[in-house]
Amino acid sequence: MEVLALGLSLALIVFPLFLAFRKRSEGGNGAKLPPGSFGWPIMGETMEFLFGKPEKFVGDRMNKYSPHIFKTKILGEKTAVICGPTGHKFLFSNEQKYFTSFRPHPMQYLFRSYQNNTAAQPPPPRTDELKSIRQPGFFKPEALMRYLGKMDSITQQQLQMHWNDDINTVQVYPLAKSITLTLACQFFLGINNPERISRLVKHFDDVTVGMHSIMLNIPGTTFYRANKAASAIRKELLNVIKEKKLAMATGAPVQDILSHMIVVTDPNGRSMPNAEIADKIMGLLTAGYSTVATTITFLMKYVGLSPEIYEKIRAEQLEIAASKKTGELLEWEDVQKMKYSWNVICETMRLVPPLQGTFREVLTEFTYNGYTVPKGWKVYWTVSTTNTNPEYFRNPEKFDPSRYDEGEEAPAPYTYVPFGGGPRMCPGKEYARLAILAFVHNVVNKYRWEVIDPNEKVEGDMMPEPEKGLPIWLHHHH
């Protein structure tokens, strides 16, 4: 309904203006813009982008206009979509030269509360959003190595809590979300309180969906729900920050990303205001939450539907378990041996991408494939131009982990980029890898499972989820 009402009211107001402006909106100075259409006035092609399947949105336009690049207008921005492995390579290789990061307006709004109320003051000096987090190397292997045992024990506790011996049918998706948020809160905030965290799951879902939505802040809309959820999370985080500052004043160690954000200062010696810390942490938690939970859920689905893949993972994980003393937690060397399990995760992310793509802002006009993209436009890269393309993946619809074995089958460079690439490659890649592998290790050592409804509908594209939460029959190994 929200879509229909909005579409009609906009069409009535805007259409007369559209005809007047149409002539003026083409590129200046005779530059040859990419082929494509800006769609409707104001809304552009946002509806098709948000409510159609991403592969279809991109695929149709690649067929109609060009397999390399096309223009569109989505989420309020003139956007060039750069397609295929050559496009990925161009984008990832020219990050600093032509592009800077860009967040769609709904995302900016949800994660920038501290800037909305200070309109009168000059904006704070812009530093790279993540610099303060990347510096101490929280996402580097050596830092994550120390955290791996914790990932293992949290996963064990959560499985024990939600999938204990008395239970035979369970839903995978709620558990995946609970585990993932518990891990993220421990890693980013140093909080080890499952009750406090599980209250927030629904809010994080709402925010995740709202990041790519129409900015219509009226009751009943996706964006309105996201905004309310963001306020609730922000409130909780401000309490966490106060508690953390008290603890640090009495000598608690600086061990998590939140403590680090509290102590970090800019060149003028100013520390980050609490509201800004809260928004940045909320952004990190959101990024580390839905993507990992989605991948765990669909991995359980594909493995549950293939006993032969299950047996191979189990053999690999049992060998690792056998080399450990009772109660000993996972270590770095163990994870390096999980080669087949990682291939299964990669194949899950190919068929159900945890992230469809991201935007950049064009810093300086450039030419690609004979077309000019003006300064100030946005560029969108997406996995959906390569992930299920038979040109790059044989039998693309088939779930086949062996395609990542070193050999003639392995995907060609830039065809498989679930984490992006280049200098802006997802900083959480290694974190996600360890979190999912720790889950796989524990789940196959404890259970066998069958998917109750193999044809369960998948809803949503930006955050794909099984309609009924992926119910399974659980068989316990003893």
UniProtKB/TrEMBL annotation:
Membrane topology: Single-pass membrane protein
Family annotation (InterPro entries): Cyt_P450, Cyt_P450_CS, Cyt_P450_E_grp-I, Cyt_P450_sf
Record bears the keyword Iron: yes
Key words of the record: Heme, Iron, Membrane, Metal-binding, Monooxygenase, Oxidoreductase, Signal, Transmembrane, Transmembrane helix
GO MF terms, alphabetically ordered: heme binding; iron ion binding; oxidoreductase activity, acting on paired donors, with incorporation or reduction of molecular oxygen, reduced flavin or flavoprotein as one donor, and incorporation of one atom of oxygen
Gene Ontology biological process terms, A to Z: sterol metabolic process
CC per GO annotation: membrane
Necessary cofactors: heme
Main subcellular location: membrane
Cellular localization per UniProt: Membrane
Signal peptide (from-to): 1-20
Binding site for heme: C426
Domain of life where this protein originates: Eukaryota
UniProt keyword Membrane, yes or no: yes
Homology family: Belongs to the cytochrome P450 family.
Protein name: Beta-amyrin 28-oxidase-like
